[in-house]
Amino acid sequence: MxxxxxxxxxxxxxxxCTSTPISNERLNYLVGLxxxxxxxxxxxxxxxxxxxxxxxxxNYTLSTWTYDQNMANTIYQQYQSSTVSAQDCKMITMHSxxxxxxxxxxKSNVKETNKRNQEAMDKFSDDMRELNKSAxxxxxxxxxxxKYYMY
Length: 151
Hints:
By secondary structure, the protein is mostly helical. It is 75% helix and 3% strand. It contains five helices and two strands. The protein has helices at residues 10-13, 24-42, 48-63, 69-80, 86-147, and strands spanning 2-3, 82-83. It has a two-stranded parallel sheet with strand order 1-2. The radius of gyration is 27 Å and the shape is rod-shaped.
């Protein structure tokens, strides 16, 4: 039987964006972590809530990249036939906890960035409104002054 192997990639997993393709190594890691967390939880070697959180973190992380769904399905099928030991589950638990934490931080950072961007857009919109008001008033003043001058 195959043994589930994960490499330590969590620190760089969340550095993608939705238009950037994920590397095969990262895709393999995330799919393996997802399958491994499920296997460990089903064997009572990992907390079920953590396994669910890990699955959500994997899904969130994958949503930040582009990837070939067929490739992900192939990797998933390969991991489905693997086995996990108690030691594997300890590592999977550690990686899962780390990914859950990192994905939470990433979500928070994205939310804060979006908030700042919205505030900047709101300010820009307010400034443009004021500029338009000033320009309209200036145009009215020029037109009013031109009534009194004959050319």
